[in-house]
Amino acid sequence: MFEDVCYKKSFLTEVVARIDFVSPVAALEKNIPAKAIKKIGLYFPIAEPIESISQHIELGVDGGVKQKEVRGKQWNFFGKQREKQLTIESSAIFVRYTKYRRFEDLKAEFQESIGTIDQAEPGIIAQRFGLRYVNQFEFDDLTISSIGKYFDESIIGSLPFNLYAANITRNFHVVELKFDDIDVRFQFGFPNSDYPAIMRRPMFVIDIDAYAQIIHPISESIQYIESAHERIQELFEKSITESLRSKMNGRK
Q1: What is the model's pLDDT at position 1?
Q2: Domain of life, per the record (predicted)?
Q3: Of 70, 113, 159, 233, whose CB neighbour count within 10 A is largest?
């Protein structure tokens, strides 16, 4: 339905695709094969691995608590302008884009990265796949009183406490939805970066996280990205008005 939607101006600040593993992969705590790093470098040429430290808490049979420090590596790869990042660690692999162009690019680059790690360490099992888009709308004529001009009535409703607009410190909402294998966490509203002070700079956020919590080999993870993206795009388009579309297309 929305395959051809493409705006000249985007308010996206972050796009993340992530796979969490069922259990840590010990080999990834120590090393990634040079062949894999070379393939990843085609899309993420800047490599910056860092040492990571995590705390594991274990309960003993006697009821005592033992805390164990686990050291490993987090493998970070960046685009030429650091506009994107691929991170591989023992328990997850994810990509993060702060300058986003096309879904097709994200899908291709993440799929190639997953395939590279699957070849290096066959048999990794995922417990969750997630795709998240964070939009932050902030422009001169966006105010609490004008919100209905840009965002659909279905999400803003009558905007509770509109009579107290000058006193609002936060107006943020969470809705959770389920579509077959895809769950969606839809967050929207005015989070207020100055909280708990009264909101002075209205910024409206639409943050949509679509995910599948299904055990599967990571080689099959990419199958969920299309349906996750479809749900995100559908919800986003139904949340905005023609006035906002015109603004995003460079029209007043």
Answers
A1: 47
A2: Bacteria
A3: 113
| Structural element, H or E, at residue 199 | none
8 Å CB contact between 239 and 213? no
In a domain, 15, yes or no: yes
> Structurally, how many domains does the chain consist of?
1
Query: Is 218 within a domain?
Result: yes
What does the pLDDT read at residue 207? 98
Q: Where in the sequence is the domain holding 168, given as residue range(s)?
A: 6-52+71-251
Q: What letter does residue 161 receive in the DSSP assignment?
A: T
When comparing pLDDT for 148 and 14, which is higher?
A: 14
153-190 pLDDT tens trace: 888 765 556 677 788 888 889 999 999 999 999 999 99
In terms of Cα–Cα distance, which of 139, 156, 108, 128 is closest to 22?
128
Whether cis (ω within 30° of 0) applies to the bond prior to 24 is no
- Tell me how far the alpha carbon of residue 88 is from its chain's centroid: 16
Question: What is the rounded average pLDDT for all residues in the chain?
Answer: 89
Does residue 63 fall inside a structural domain? no
Could you write out the three-class secondary structure of 214-228?
Answer: CCEEHHHCCHHHHHH
Rounded to two decimals, what is the model's pTM? 0.88
Please state whether 178 falls in left (phi above 0), alpha (psi between -120 and 50) or beta.
beta
